[in-house]
Amino acid sequence: MTASGWPLRRAAPRQTGKDDPVEAFAVCLDCGADIADWRERLLPIRAGSLAVTEDGELALHVECEGICDQCGGGRAEVRVEGRHVPRA
Known about the structure:
4 strands, 1 helix
């Protein structure tokens, strides 16, 4: 399985240290838009399928009618990725 390949509007995942933050987010698989309030709109997830992202991380593909506000699409990808934050 592979992920959508849509470009994300986030920094690419990097090797993270144990204190670096992790971000959970969802994107539309039809248009690539971020899905606002995805936790409230998708959880609890009734069924999904695991996918491997372009960076080798796991993602969850979920179908939910009208989940995307931009295109009205019904397919989302939920990701949890580490983000390296430069220390000051």
